[in-house]
């Protein structure tokens, strides 16, 4: 097993043993690799039953299906539909453009409180993406792989 076969994803700390031989992207699950492979072959195996449009993954088909109004909660502005009213309310905020949630550290504004919470963690380094933490990660990785960053 090569050294890079045991590299773990820095945020989730999970091994990614499944390698795409086309672009060297790694995955934690074989099914994810199979879905990804279709992006290279351009095979569109998933067909919309409403409009016959085709997609390379079931995820993209499910996302597309929201435009056909088959879900109970519909956005009056763009027509996108949602399974839960909570998700519709959260979506409607995106149309207003209002950014009501402000970061106390850098004053950046966000539309959603959950995005502010994720952003705030970056300042403390909790998510491993603060400049210092990420820089350290790249330096350690470059030493491990024998490359220079």
Polypeptide structure, described:
The protein is of the alpha+beta class. It has 2 domains: 3-67, Double Stranded RNA Binding Domain (2-Layer Sandwich), CATH 3.30.160.60; 69-126, Double Stranded RNA Binding Domain. 40% of the residues lie in helices and 11% in strands. It contains 5 helices and 8 strands. The strands form 4 sheets. Strands 1-2 form a two-stranded antiparallel sheet. It has a two-stranded antiparallel sheet with strand order 3-4. A two-stranded antiparallel sheet has the order 5-6.
Describe the SSE topology.
Elements: E1 18-19, E2 26-27, H1 30-41, E3 46-47, E4 54-55, H2 58-65, E5 73-74, E6 81-82, H3 85-96, E7 101-102, E8 109-110, H4 113-124, H5 131-145
Antiparallel strand pairs: 1-2, 3-4, 5-6, 7-8
Write down the domain tally.
Answer: 2
> What radius of gyration results from the CA coordinates?
20 Å
- Quick check: average pLDDT? 75
Cα end-to-end separation: 24 Å
The CATH topology of the largest domain:
Double Stranded RNA Binding Domain
Overall morphology: flat
Helix content: 25-40%
Number of E-type strands? 8
Q: For the record, what is the CATH homologous superfamily label of the largest domain?
A: Classic Zinc Finger
For the record, what CATH class of the largest domain applies?
A: Alpha Beta
Q: In what order do the strands lie side by side in the largest sheet?
A: 1-2
Q: Which residues form runs of ≥5 with pLDDT under 50?
A: 1-11
Structural class: alpha+beta
CATH architecture of the largest domain: 2-Layer Sandwich
Q: State which percent range the strand residues make up.
A: 5-15%
Q: What composes the largest sheet?
A: 2 strands, antiparallel
Helical segment tally?
Answer: 5
> Helices and strands, in N-to-C order?
EEHEEHEEHEEHH
């Amino acid at each position: 097993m090569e050294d890079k076969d045991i590299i773990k994803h820095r945020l989730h700390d999970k091994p990614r043993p499944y390698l795409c031989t086309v672009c060297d992207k790694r995955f934690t699950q074989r099914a994810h690799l199979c879905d990804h492979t279709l992006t290279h072959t351009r095979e569109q195996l998933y067909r919309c039953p409403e409009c016959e449009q085709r997609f390379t993954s079931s995820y993209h088909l499910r996302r597309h299906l929201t435009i056909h109004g088959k879900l109970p909660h519909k956005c009056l502005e763009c027509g996108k539909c949602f399974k839960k009213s909570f998700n519709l309310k959260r979506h409607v905020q995106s149309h207003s453009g209002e950014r009501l949630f402000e970061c106390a550290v850098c004053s950046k504004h966000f539309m959603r409180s959950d995005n502010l919470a994720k952003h705030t963690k970056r300042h403390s380094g909790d998510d491993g993406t603060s400049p210092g933490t990420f820089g350290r990660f790249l330096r350690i990785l470059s030493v491990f792989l024998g490359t220079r960053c």
